[in-house]
Amino acid sequence: MRSDRPSVTLSPLGGVAEVLRVAWEASPSLLLWQAMIAVVAGLVPTIAAWINRAVLNAVVGDYGQKGNVGPTAHRSVLVLALALGTTGLIVAIIPHVTRYVTAAFKRKTDLLIQDRLCRTMNSFPGLSRFETPEFKDEVRLALDEGSTAPGQFLTNGFGALQALISGGTFIAALALINTDFILLIVGAAIPAVTAQLITSRRRMGVLWTLSPSMRRRLFYRGLQFDLNAAKEVRLFGLSDFLRTRMLDEQRTINNAEERSDRTVVSVQGSLAVLAACITGVGLIWVVNQAARGRVSVGDVTLFVMAIGGVQTAMASLIASLIGGYEALTRVGYYRRIIGAGPDLPIAEKCSPVPRLDRGVEFRNVWFRYDERQPWVLKGASLFLPAGRTVGLVGRNGAGKSTLIKLLCRFYDPSKGSIFWDGVDLRDINPADLRQRIGAVFQDYMAYDLTAVENIGMGDLKRLRNSEETKKAAEQAGIHARLSSLPRGYDTLLSRIFIDSDDEADPQTGSTLSGGEWQRLAVARGLMRHDRDLLILDEPSSGLDAEAEHAIHARLRSVRQGRASLLISHRLSAVREADTIVVLADGKVVEQGTHLELMAAKGAYCRLFSLQAAGYRDGPITTVEDAPLGQSAETRVGTLSEAPL
Q1: N or C: less crowded end of the chain, CB within 10 Å?
Q2: Distance between CA atoms of residues 145 and 217, nearest Å
């Protein structure tokens, strides 16, 4: 398996097109509303300034000079005043409407993006990407940031549109009056825009530099509040150590941010002073022009409003462009995920999964997780006959878990093949194959759901079948415990969803011990007791001796009539298997019945003897250490009856 990052060529234009597709699919009406609001919001300030100019010119010209005006001029001034009031009303309403439409649009796009991401993630048939650190980072970024990025990009995009319209119309309006105004307006806006560019780049650089410190701070802080870590933190006295590490990272972040803030203040302050000086000079010039009668009082007002409007529009434009670029970068995380193809090749025309009448064959299977990593399996060959039980044993790292992953087609062999009744697994749709397999994994899940849901998730079609779930629970030896819960099988097996009002109510949630959770996981796997192949990977590792004996007695009856693969480090659990396969260094080194392997005095015999010695008096560690004077058969028989 290579480092399987989704190889998708990303272009900025492709990102924009993807955002627009998402937005249109999420809500065409809200998208159009946002565009219309941006246009109106961009036009209104200039319209208001122009009307204000007209009102002042009318008042100063007609009322101020004539003293008494006719009804027509009076009505014109009233109409202008009404129009000015209307624009003021629109200006007051637009922010509220914008917030409502933006929030509604964000909810719809977030929902659509989350749905697409989850659908894509669940469409990957294998596990290779899930075990790749780079892909995990991309998934986290796509879920945390990529889901909101399209909405943020559109918000910034419409903000840029509004700024362009507002600034452009202000400049156009001034050009109609006096082209000299444009030079003053642009000259006053340049420092503000420059300050925005410098500070934005500075902030982005600081955030990128501090990213490792932020991750470490979150790591150290999370350990102090994590339930799983709480035991060791208290037992080993790690609280001060972790708190100090967290505060050191926080101080690093604070110091860098303080230096950045000082730079930002100095740059923005200096350029703001420059902009104010240019504005002041321009205002003196305009007033002087008005005093000479070259421009009207309304023109002066329009100029003053335009200075602020253009500066604000230019700064908003730059901020929106920078924000849009950042959002487009985050959209890339989402695009890389949804653009990734299947992580396993699936045949165009898959073969149907035949009933397992003969068995499953591993034929010279080689596998490694990465081309840079060593081989995990090195030509492993074995056969799982239909209707029989095969026990698989070996040291940690021998390749047992990898073999299971290949059997479920979470990966394909690097070399060699696996056959299901003669059909290569590569020719079978993985989803169809997995419907024929039941499994209990060593690293089982403990879902924060009800007991019936925890069991029923083994076969969703039987989730609401109370008889099936109870039967599975009885076979796993957990029925009595679940029945004794406050709400029986409908009891929530978690306390994390409890509201403060329900905290004292024991009916709202219960927890299980580690061994009880393992029995429940076994029950979940037994919901598929009727499948062709049953995989039991360390199904009793967390149980006490009595519980282990009881559950294996039940599992023996469940395994009857179907192929089953039983993996356990406790060799007593596999001694009754029809065939025992010993895996070492990625190869099958021994196979046979328990008695045959003990008589062979190989790897299995040595491991079994080591475990058996723990139940005997004296330091017996191998078969050869058995008391002298006994035959090989007697020694094997003695070890075979050791109460493991």
Answers
A1: C
A2: 19
Please answer whether residues 195 and 318 qualify as being in contact, where contact means their C-beta atoms are separated by less than 8 angstroms. Answer: no
Cβ neighbours of residue 69 under 8 Å, at least 6 residues apart? 62, 63
Whether the Cβ atoms of residue 296 and residue 290 lie closer than 8 Å to each other: yes
In a domain, 121, yes or no: yes
What's the sign of the alpha-carbon dihedral 112, 116, 118, 119?
positive
Nearest alpha-carbon partner for 390 in 640, 135, 566, 604: 566
pLDDT surpasses 90 at 504: no
Assess if residue 206 is contained within a domain.
no
Edge-first strand listing for the sheet containing 359-367: 377-385, 359-367, 415-420, 423-424
pLDDT digit string (tens) for 11-48?
A: 566 778 888 888 888 889 988 999 999 999 888 888 88
Q: Considering only CA atoms, which of 614, 613, 592 is closest in space to residue 603?
A: 592
Q: How far is CA 323 from CA 13, 17, 142, 156, 448, in A?
A: 16, 17, 17, 6, 38
Which range among 60-69, 336-345, 492-501, 525-534 has the greatest average pLDDT?
525-534
Long-range contacts (CB closer than 8 Å, 24 or more residues apart) made by 209-212? 209/256, 210/252, 210/253, 210/256, 210/257
Q: pTM higher than 0.85, yes or no? A: no
User: Which of 493, 519, 545 finishes a domain?
Assistant: 519
Give, in degrees to the nearest 5, the angle at Cα 290 between 284 and 293: 150
Backbone angles phi, psi at 428, to 5 degrees: -110, 140
Answer with the one of 338, 373, 398 that is the final residue of a domain.
338
Across 465-486, average pLDDT: 90
Handedness of CA 298, 301, 307, 310 (dihedral sign): negative
Tokens 């840079």 belong to 372
Task: Identify the CA nearest to 440 among candidates 320, 551, 605, 298.
Answer: 551
- Asked if 24 and 149 sit in the same domain, the reply is yes
314 and 458 share a domain? Answer: no
Residue 362 pLDDT class (50, 70, 90 cuts): very high
How many domains does the chain divide into? 2
33: amino acid identity, one letter:
W
Q: Which domain holds residue 484?
A: 448-519
Q: For residue 420, what is the enclosing H or E element?
A: strand 415-420
Q: In terms of Cα–Cα distance, which of 289, 305, 292, 290 is closest to 52?
A: 305
How far apart are alpha carbons 409 and 125 in whole angstroms? 8
Residue 44 resides in a domain: yes
Q: Tell whether 471 and 328 lie within a shared domain.
A: no
> What sections of 59-179 are H helices per DSSP?
64-66, 71-123, 133-141, 149-177
Task: Tell me the Cα Rg of the chain.
Answer: 37
Give per-residue pLDDT as tens, 106-119: 888 888 888 888 88
